[in-house]
Amino acid sequence: MLRFVVALISGLTLGGVIALIALGLVLAFRATHTFNFAHGQLMYLPALLVGYLFLQGRSIYAALFIGLIVTVTVGVLFYALVLRKTLGQPAMMGIIATLGLAFVVDGLIGIFIPQTQYAIAIPGVPVGVWEIFGIRVSAAKVTFAIATLAIAIIVVAVLRFTPLGIRVRAAGQNSVLSSQCGIPIRRIHIGSWATAALLAAFAGISFGSIATVDTQLLGLGLVALPAIVLGGMDSIEGSVIAGVIVGLVQSFTAMYLGGEFVDLITYGILLMVLLVMPQGLLGTKTIVRA
Amino acid sequence: MLFASRIRPAWWGILTIGLLTLLIASTASSYQLFLFNSVLLASMGAIALTILQGTAGLISVGNAGFMLVGAFGAVFMQRQGLPFPANIVGAVLLAGVAGLIVGMPALRLRGLYLVLSTLAAHFIAVFVGNLYQSSVPEAAFSGFSVPILFGSFGERSGALWAIILFISLSVIILGASRVNRERYGRALKMIRDHEHVAPTLGISVPRYKLQVFVLSSMVIGFQGALLAHLNGNVQVETFPLHLGFQYILIVVIGGLGSIPGAVIGTSVVVALPVLVPEIIKRMGLGADSPLLGANISLVAYGIIVIYFVTASPDGIIGLLRSARTRLRVGRIKQAIS
After folding, report:
1. Which of A1, B213, B234, B326 could form a disulfide with B103 if both were Cys (CB 3.0 to 4.6 A apart)?
2. Cβ under 8 Å to B: A residues 89-118
3. Do A100 and B115 make contact, defined as CB atoms within 8 angstroms?
4. Exposure class string for A198-216: b at 16+ Cβ within 10 A, else e
5. A137 pairs with which residues across the strands?
6. A38: helix, coil or strand?
7. Min Cα–Cα distance to chain A from B19, Å
8. Nearest to A267 among B124, B300, B306 (CB)
9. How far apart are CA A188 and CA A193, in angstroms?
10. A82 near B CB under 8 A
């Protein structure tokens, strides 16, 4: 029971983070039909910046603000300067461009940020332990699980129920038709990439403050790929649900089988989903099969 | 067949590399020879990927994973008692089988989804490698040590390796040119551009896709097995996912689907982290941070690849070709006026 609750709580915390990343990936995918292989870098960068600036003596709020702004700027610039120019080319070129972005951000991080590990402490987050069903769990973990899931649900609700959300979804489904209905496609795509970067920054900073900020954030960005495939590539709701599922699976695997099996199980799921149900849980069945 | 006019450019390429090999093997320092050997070795994997990705349109991040299979395969076979050349053959076959398994999803999924299945394959290969490495007590921490081939020749070993690598690379270039320029390659291009039309021309899409996937995996596995004998050490950490990404960059920088492009791209990517720190040192910078050069070359990779993706999708080869065309057009214009 103890192990179960501990695995559940850390799974939900991890799941909340993965859900945020996956949500951003799906938004970016719907806008430009590219998997963003640099999403891990978009998480690592703000988390490092916050840790570094705070250590330099800035206030934590200024550090958070700068971290978020820089990340969103990177996302928007990358879309405006690079991805828009790959529009007429095969979708593969977009993926390769995101690999290029990953290398650039990696290099810049190495040049400008002296350490590769930081600790972040966000004010207002409860410390210590709480007792749930008589089992002591970390208060910060529970808070972040709730906070990340709340952010994800708010974003999903906005996309589902507001006129803006309808425009975003329409633009993702059929950009030609929706542009003829007067939806500003380019602004929506820029907005999607900005939101994706912002969500990645939230995810990176949350994960960094639960654990430490280090290179494992880069791997976490990749773990969101199985999540969005499981959720169904273009499904916004599916990405959040699948993100939580992947988080839970990872934490239960680590608890009951051992840490070395985590990657095997996660990417095994990816392979199985690709083979057995490529449309995922909630995705549209538009995958072209040979 | 081997001297058909269609693959004549390949012979010119081989001749050039051969002369370079002779020149470098007889004059260069052992460090320069080591770099040259790295280029020759990495070119093999880059050629395999450029056929897979450029000609057949199957994008893969699995290079590092298949190299791991090849290297670990060679170690495994050797520990089972197979001596040097036989263990490489075994490793190549093993990589082929791995390619067959990973290629299965490629039959059902198109384009973007294959990149995810090769991503999954990478992590599964790493898992199996870790499992094997930790099951052998003496290799658990620092990896397997493999007897370095020609190690007993001392100074001359680099030159011997250069010759071995040159011969292997030549065979691969010839094979790849035949694939690229003859019926087989045209079928692959048809599958890449119009997958639904290809069967009406009598092209069996699943067979071609699987074949090209298996063949390229075998070449990459061969590269991994040779790497094991060149390095003398095999461990999982040698094959990070980043390496697989790097091969995609190599292929794009050189020019997708172009064999000389793959070799040129490899030279650029191997040369950058050597040249950039040198330039920085000359400029008198970075004395206090040893990693500055490495980081600047990372940024340079990224910017180069983004430049080619956005401005010139055919890579360095595309630039060379358009320069040649411009030269010709200029000459014709001159002749007319």
Report:
1. B213
2. 89-93, 95-97, 99-108, 110-111
3. no
4. bbbbbbbbbbbbbbebbee
5. A130
6. coil
7. 34
8. B124
9. 9
10. yes
Residue of B nearest to A83 (CA): B310
Q: How far is A105 from chain B (nearest CA, A)?
A: 7
> Given CA atoms B57, B58, B62, B66 in this order, what sign does their dihedral have?
negative
The helix or strand, by DSSP H or E, that contains position A10, with its residue range, turns out to be helix A2-32
3-class DSSP state of B290: coil
Residue for token pair 């040192």: B281
Q: In chain B, where does DSSP find H-type helix? A: 8-27, 30-50, 63-79, 84-108, 112-135, 157-181, 183-193, 205-231, 241-254, 259-282, 292-311, 315-336
pLDDT digits (tens, 9 = 90+) for A204-224: 998 888 888 888 888 888 888
In this prediction the pTM is: 0.89
In the three-class reduction of DSSP (H, G, I as helix; E, B as strand; rest coil), residue A136 is classed as: strand
Say which residue the tokens 């990657």 belong to. A263
What's the token pair of residue B256? 């997708």
Measured over the CA atoms of residue B276, residue B278, residue B284 and residue B290, the dihedral's sign is positive
How far does CA A215 lie from the centroid of its chain?
15
Which candidate in A30, A83, A99 is best for mutational testing of the B interface (most B CBs within 10 A)? A99
Tokens 């009598």: give the residue.
B202
d(CA A96, CA B261): 17
Per-residue confidence of chain B (337 residues) as pLDDT tens digits? 566 667 777 888 888 888 888 888 888 788 888 889 999 999 999 999 999 988 888 888 889 999 999 999 999 988 888 887 888 999 999 999 999 988 887 777 666 778 888 888 999 999 999 999 888 887 777 778 777 777 677 677 788 888 889 999 999 999 898 888 888 888 888 888 888 888 888 888 888 888 999 999 999 999 999 998 888 888 888 899 989 999 999 999 998 889 999 999 999 998 888 888 888 888 877 666 677 888 888 899 899 999 998 888 888 998 998 999 999 999 998 888 7
d(CA B44, CA B157): 20
Report the b/e string of A125-142 with b at 16+ CB within 10 A: eeeeeeeeeebebbebbb
CB count within 10 Å of CB A56 equals 8
Q: Give A129's strand partners.
A: A138
Q: Sign of the CA dihedral B312, A73, A232, B246? A: positive
Q: How many CA atoms lie within 13 A of B331 on its CB side?
A: 6
Other Cβ atoms closer than 10 A to A240:
25
User: From the list B109, B130, B252, which residue is nearest A278 (CB)?
Assistant: B109
Which of B131, B300, B313 comes nearest A93 by C-beta?
Answer: B313
A222 chain-B contacts, CB cut-off 8 A: 119, 241
> Is A104–B298 a contact, with Cβ atoms under 8 angstroms apart?
yes
Q: Which residue of B has its CA nearest to A35?
A: B112
Q: Are B90 and B82 in contact (CB under 8 A)?
A: yes
The ipTM of this complex is 0.87
